[in-house]
Structure formats: structure tokens, C-alpha cells
Design goal:
7-stranded antiparallel β-sheet, globular, 36 strands, Neuraminidase, mainly beta, Immunoglobulin-like, 5-stranded antiparallel β-sheet, 500 residues
Length: 500
Amino acid sequence: MFSFFLTGCNKSGLDYTIETVLNPNKISPLTAILNITSDIPCKATVKVLGDISVEQSFEESSTNLNVPVLGLYPNKLNQVEITLDYEGGQKIDVIEIQTSEIPNYFPDIEVNKLEKDKMESGMHALDIHFANFGKFRSAPIIFDDNGNIRWYLDLSFHGAMVGPFQKIKNGNILVSGRRTIYEFDMMGKLLVMMKIDNNYGIHHDILELPNEDLLLCVGKRDAYMEKDGKSVLSDNDFIIHFDRKKSKILKEWDLAKHLDVNRDDLNFFRDGDWFHMNALEFDKRDSTIIVSGRNQGLVKITWDDKLKWIMSPKQNWGKSGRKGKGYDTKPYLLTALNKEGKPYNKDVQNGIKSADDFDFPWGPHAPSLLPNGNIIVFDNGPFRNYNNENNYSRAVEYEVNEIDKTFKQVWEYGKSRGVELFSTIVSDVDFLPTTKNILMTSGFISPKNVHKAKIVEISPKDNKEVFEATIFLKNTNRGNKPGWGQTDVLYRSERMELKN
């Protein structure tokens, strides 16, 4: 962190000083604060100059302004234009701010396609986590259309993975560790830190509800299930409703109550990780929750804890419950219909085969509701059709008829690109509200030679790419053993405006 002063005046009598403080909160190195003192109240506009400028205007008029600067270029003597508007005149100055290099383990970014007039506005935010010898060092990044990193948040102080990185309704950044929830502003200032009950551990997702409470994906201490006659500790199979204002847990859902914990057709981790919950979506139309379980599929439950449906291949579903003594899950399985409204054959319903125009989401991530009520989800595709022969990932849209317990595939993108976008884990898909485009993130593409991720913005009208970037991951801080925390992962990405 450093600071310097600039003093100026003009013929109309505005006297002012500008103190520049780089990285004021010590975790956001491409930001600065301008402390502007003047003899006449004024308003400020700041603009980071460059190929892609970043500009912010502020309505506050005062003789003492604290103005945030975001979007500095790394390793550069940045030119920042400051416009001061006051009664009777305007003053424009340019100051210089020197920044340091970004960390050497950050990815190289290549923009492959850019059709700006067809894209959603904003920059490109990465919820990225770097290998750190069996743990993760988390540092969300925002880059511009030229592939230049213009913002990042160094969260290494936490000592483990922190995420997912998201901007919430109040404009702040929300991330979490296993038992700690952090809320920052874009300058890296810690605004709120909350702890959850030690009997729970947050895993993979936090969802902000319309009333600003949170839904958390969690594992619960001492939650056991029966597997092959043995008692096994489970994980990632509870949801909790968390009151942010009171920092209090209000409600709990146990997914094992509603599902078959012994169904292991897609579980390749350990017996207790039967579901592997990774994402939540809230349907405000009927106060229900759509849950993504990597090892089972998509599930919808009600606020009062009842199962509505299961979207998954129908093979080998039995009774629900931690001891397998609950109700039959089969009546809750959605039946897949073709475009004519007729059910596909048994092999397709069981997931043994895929139809040309339909498939289930295999190992899914990031379901969300579209404005038309349909569901869009990232279909990772690991072990598709219970084999390793059809390796592709895709974004896919489904229409669900909850009364008839049926669903149809409406749209897809990615299948034709095969292994080029194939990500067995993590990943994301988002609806972009202005353009109605789809943003697809394949976060862990790992062919033999190059480990990378892909971000693609697609116009669903013609399935044409309007933006594409390749994120080349470096994996510099790896141990000798493979596994979680030994390779870089891009968990999600968002289109995001760079402003405080």
C-alpha cells in the first residue's frame, strides 16, 4: 500500500488536494481510494484510462470525498482521470498510480471470440481457486474483453477454499468458508463476518433468498446412513435456512429423508457422499427449492419439507431414508417426453441410452430458473449412459410439468463440441437478462496436455457464440498426490459490472 498527494487550483478558485491510497484494504491490489479535500464542495468522476476504460461517477458533493477507483491495470503506471464538478466550474486532472504484477499462479487468458454488440454488458468474473498443496488458495478475478485482469480479491488469509464468489442484491460480494460467511465491498473492505453452528459445514453453494436470508448447502456432524448393512458418515446432504440479520439457523432439510441413499450408480467418491449437493435454486412462485446433487440428479422439495419430483435416470431407485425404510421414490421420478409429447423408450428413461434430441443431466451443476419458468442447468456428463464413451458437457433447458410428473428437453448447447467443452466437475450456466443470451462455463477441462477452462456466451436463437474465452490454468502449487486442492478449478463465472 502507498499513498501520494496532488495539489491543484484554477482561475475560478478551486483549491484541492488528492491523496491516493493503493490497495487500501490490503486484499484488492487493483483498487485505490482517492481522498479529495477541496475548499468548495464538489462531485467526482474517476476514469481509469486505457484500451478499455473503467469510469464511475458519484453524486455526493462535499469538501471531503473518499472516491473508490476500480479496474487498474496490473504492473503498470496507470493514468487515472479525475473530474471535479463544483458550483461555477469543472476541473479535470490526471494522476498516475503504479501497480504491481499479478501473482504468477494466475491463469493466462485468451479471448477467442468477441461480438460486442451482441453480448451482455459487463466484464468477466471468475470464481477461481488455485492449487495449494492439497488445499485451495481462493482469489476471484475479473478480466476485460481483451483478457486483461482488472480486479481480484486475495482471500488467502482464510487458509482454505472460500466461495462461491457472487454479487448479492445490495451490491456487495458474498463468499464463505466451511463455517464462516464473509461479505465484502468491491474494494475488499470486510463489512460482515458471520459464523454458523459448528455442527454444520458449508459446501459448494450459498443462495440469497428474496428477503435476503440465505439457503446453505451443508454437511452435518454425526449424520449417519446405512450402506450395505454398515453405518456410514454422510456429507453434503442437508440444507439450512440462515437468518443473516440474526446470524441464526431457522430451518433444516435432510435430503436423505426423501431419496435413496443406497443408489450408487453414479457415486465414485465414497459411500457417504451418496448425493454430493452442489447448488440450490429457489422458486418464489411456490416457495420450493431445486437442488442439484452431482451423484443423483436434480430434486425439488417444498418449503414444508415434502418431495415434489426427481429428475434423474430411472434406473435403481428404491426407498428413501437414512436406513432405506422410507417411502418409494419411483412415483416422484419425472418421465421424459419427446417433442410430440410421447415418452421415450425404457432404455432412454433408465439412462442406458440417450436420444438424439434428449438426455438427462449427468453429474449436474448450477440449475436456475428462466423467466419462462423452465430450468437451465450445466450437464457435466461424467459416466453418461453408465460408461465413458460419450464425453461431452452442455448447457440444457428443460420444461417440467409438475402435475403429470413429466419433462421435455427444450434447448441445448455444447454437445456438438464434444471433449472441447467437457468438464467432469464444477462448472456453471447463467441466463443473461438483457440479451437473453446464455453464459456457459466449463470449469475443468483436462485433456492430456493442457488444463484449461472455457467461458462461452451463446445466443440461443441460433446457437452462435458471441463471446468465448479460454482460461489456461497453471497448477503451479501441487503436491505429489492427485485430488481436491491439487489442481486449479474455475468453479463458476459471471458477467459483472466493475463498480463499487
